[in-house]
Amino acid sequence: MIKAANRIASVEEYYFSRKLAEVRGLDSPELRVINLGIGSPDQAPSANAVEALIASAKNPANHGYQNYKGIPQFRKAIADFYQNIYKVKLDVETGILPLMGSKEGIMHIAMAFVNEGEEVLIPNPGYPTYSSVANLVGAKLRPYDLKEELNWGVDIEALKKSDLSKVKLMWVNFPHMPTGRTASREELKELVDLARKHQFLIVNDNPYSMILNDEPMSILSIEGAEEVALELNSLSKSHNMAGWRLGWVAGKKEYIDAVLKVKSNMDSGMFLGLQHAAAEALKNGAEWFTALNKMYGERKQAAKKILDVLGCTYAAKQSGLFVWAKAPNHIADVEKWIDEILYGTKVFITPGFIFGEAGRRYIRISLCCTVEMLSEAFNRIQRFNAEKATSSKTSTVNA
Boundaries of each Aminotransferase class I/classII large domain copy (predicted)? Predict the structure, then answer.
């Protein structure tokens, strides 16, 4: 038996990779599992994007290796998107690097900038991949708490008082997953100023800015951010293209070039048809996002009914594809409770512990299911609760 590399000893298989296999095992024709766990949009991309892919794929000349930096048409579409949505001007030639989904960018950025033993600031709660990648490159993890009493904001004063001399990179993610928290310009400016003072790279992972968010914002719109910041973005959530693996990183030329050094040794460029489709998708106007957010708004109301019947509490204002909620006080073990619901109703809800210690008392519901499916989940959970209450009364009487 060949021993695996030491670098993966502290990294576990991604939670959803394991758990969704278990969830699928419960599925049956008689009672289908309702998966309220993962944020994978269930709607189709825009027709113009699909048509662009088909037309490009039919061209025999379009199936060869492509430029590592992506085609100018795709990069220009990204630049136009940033100008229209965030009022940020990106250099089409030097300030944008297309990625096969922004998740790969997390790894590429860490490999490009973080040396073994250097510190990486990780949000708690936050996307688990930030921690996993930091472990893989031999960094020292420095979790920073997002506090409920600060409406899940960053405790910037606490960071200012801490020793940041060994920090090389800070991950931020606004609108935040899983809490749905958005950041103000003032908060982002304070974070940028902190990064400039202590000379570390700050990276905003920004895939949710167009979902149930009235004020989409890029960290690159903040004064001074270009000196110390990169931004990841993607079409996965905003354009219903999660499985297409289309994203990008934007920022200063020197930082983009460093990421390119890693990326160019990891893949051989993105299929041309996908780039043509992405360029078309990024042309979608306000009506696309209005319709998308109307749908998610309706689903959010249905999700809140589930949380109400579970006895959870939650903030009314949350952006992104999820609703984040606190479990009732009487629930001793949230993970166990979620499994009881799963096996008793075949409804899967994400337990918050996977996002860090600060999420241990919380759960997350995805809005990537129809209102009808969310309503069916509500009915199953309501029946489950009623049956548990009846069983408990019977046990008490018999005792």
Answer: 33-381
Q: Which of these, 342, 366, 318, 347, lies nearest to 38 by C-alpha position? A: 366
Alpha helices in the chain (DSSP H): 15-25, 47-57, 72-86, 102-113, 128-136, 156-161, 185-198, 253-263, 272-281, 286-310, 334-345, 371-398
Residues 290, 383 share a domain: yes
Rg (CA), the chain: 22
For residues 366-370, give the mean pLDDT. 97
The CATH number assigned to the domain holding 211 equals: 3.40.640.10
Residues 245 and 336 in one domain: no
pTM reported for the whole predicted model: 0.94
Taking only the tens place, the pLDDT of each residue in 94-109 is 999 999 999 999 999 9
30 with 51, same domain: the answer is no
How far apart CA 30 and CA 45 sit, in angstroms, is 31
pLDDT-above-90 percentage for the chain: 87
Give Cβ neighbours of residue 36 (< 8 Å, ≥ 6 apart): 303, 306, 347, 348, 349, 350, 365, 366, 369, 374, 377
Nearest by Cα to 367 from 218, 180, 104, 216? 180
In a domain, 4, yes or no: no
Judgement on whether residues 192 and 270 belong to the same structural domain of the protein: yes
Residue type, 114: V
H helix or E strand, kind and range, residue 362: strand 362-366
Q: Give the range among 24-33, 301-310, 351-360 with minimum mean pLDDT.
A: 24-33
Residue whose token pair is 């920090």: 167
Please give the DSSP secondary-structure letter assigned to residue 7. Answer: G
Domain shared by 58 and 134, yes or no? yes
CA separation for the pair 150, 81 (Å, rounded): 32
| Site of tokens 């031999």 | 138
